[in-house]
Design goal:
Elements: E1 9-22, E2 25-38, H1 53-60, E3 68-77, E4 80-81, H2 87-96, H3 105-108, H4 115-125, H5 130-136
Antiparallel strand pairs: 1-2, 1-3, 3-4
């Protein structure tokens, strides 16, 4: 998809299934998950500990551990099939197209600096400056 033609949805996950290989056997941990996030929307994924929130987030950007595998479904980020992205396109998608706040932000964010400043810095590092970075944060 070209930069001038944005997909209607930022993220589309359809019938996603994931398994982890444990003790020589595949153990299904996600079954037929579907979700859609529109352009400019924020999405909070909440649930009990161990229910698969991190697995969903890691799968969307192909960060599953070695024993994890996608066993079904599709993932589309800005209209691009994540499963077909080469290493460079995947790196770009991770840097520019998606972000994640972890379960324990105290370990991922600096508690002595305002969250908005930390988020602004991320946009600045990505080449967005001034008020545009602040607005996006």
């Amino acid at each position: 998809m070209t930069n001038s033609a944005k997909a209607e949805n930022a993220l589309e996950v359809t019938d996603l299934s994931v398994a982890y290989r444990v003790a020589g056997r595949n153990r299904a941990v996600l079954r037929n998950l579907s979700l859609t996030i529109g352009q400019g929307e924020a999405y909070g994924l909440v649930g009990e500990s161990g229910c698969g929130k991190s697995t969903v987030a890691l799968t969307v950007v192909r960060y599953l551990p070695r024993n994890g595998s996608i066993t079904g479904g599709t993932i589309s980020l800005d209209g691009q099939n994540v499963m077909k992205l080469d290493a460079e396109a995947l790196r770009r998608a991770r840097a520019e197209g998606v972000s994640m706040v972890y379960q324990d932000p105290g370990k991922a964010l600096n508690p002595s600096i305002r969250v908005s400043r930390q988020l602004t810095e991320i946009f600045e590092l990505g080449g967005i400056s001034g008020q545009a970075a602040t607005d996006r944060a």
